[in-house]
# Entry
Amino acid sequence: MNRVMLIGRLTAKPELRYTGSNVPFSRFTVAVNRTFNNNNGERETDFINCIIWRKQAENVCNYLDKGSLVSVEGRIQTGSYDDKDGNKRYTTDVVADSVQFLESKSQRQNSANDVTPYDYQNDKETNDVNIEDDPFADFGDSVSIDENFLD
# Structure
């Protein structure tokens, strides 16, 4: 099974393009925070390339902007091409079946200065998360990850 679900913020305003047969599509990147802290106690962010087609591409381009909070559901697709110097380049994209808009335009404008997808109000000394600001507070139990898996 090849299914992907992401929640994050757009890194730039999506642009609508068309194939040679006039099918609309858009490529965009979603910034997604990792669920654990690195050795410095900071959360790192992954930048996931996505592509969406047809009417949903038009909606994404018409209604979303840089910093918009979205949920993306789709599948991973890999590919390769030769660049202008003849080097083989590999690509990994999420082909989106669905993009959900997770905030209103006014909420997006209030969060325009956010640096990362989620701005939790952590207590620096205790590392407690303010539950009211945590969209995943009731998501379930914590997950233990073997540190060797992260390398």
